[in-house]
Amino acid sequence: MSATPEFLATARAARAGGAKPAKARAILMHPLAKPVLFVAALLPFAWLLYGAFANTLGANPAEALIRSTGDWTLRFLCAALAITPLRQWAGEVALARFRRMLGVYTFFYGVLHFLCYAWLDMGLALDDITHDIAKRPFILVGFTALVLMTPLAATSFNKAIKWLSAPRWRALHKAVYAIVLLGLLHFFWMRAGKHDFAEWSVYAVIVSVLLGDRLLRWARSRAEARRA
Amino acid sequence: MLISNRKSLGLDHGVSSEITPRSVYEERRDLLKLLAAGSAGALLAGWASRDALAQAAGVTRPNKLAALESARSAVAGAVSMDKLTAYADITSYNNFYEFGTDKSDPSHNAGRMKTRPWTVSIEGEVRRPQTLAIEDLLKLAPMEERIYRLRCVEGWSMVIPWVGYSLSELIKRVEPTGNAKFVEFVTLADPKQMPSVSSSVLDWPYVEGLRLDEAMHPLTLLAFGLYGEVLPNQNGAPVRLVVPWKYGFKSAKSIVKIRFVEKQPRTAWVKAAQQEYGFYSNVNPKVDHPRWSQATERRIGEDGIFAKKRPTLMFNGYEAQVGQLYAGLDLAKNY
Question: pLDDT > 70: what percent of chain B?
Answer without folding.
Answer: 82
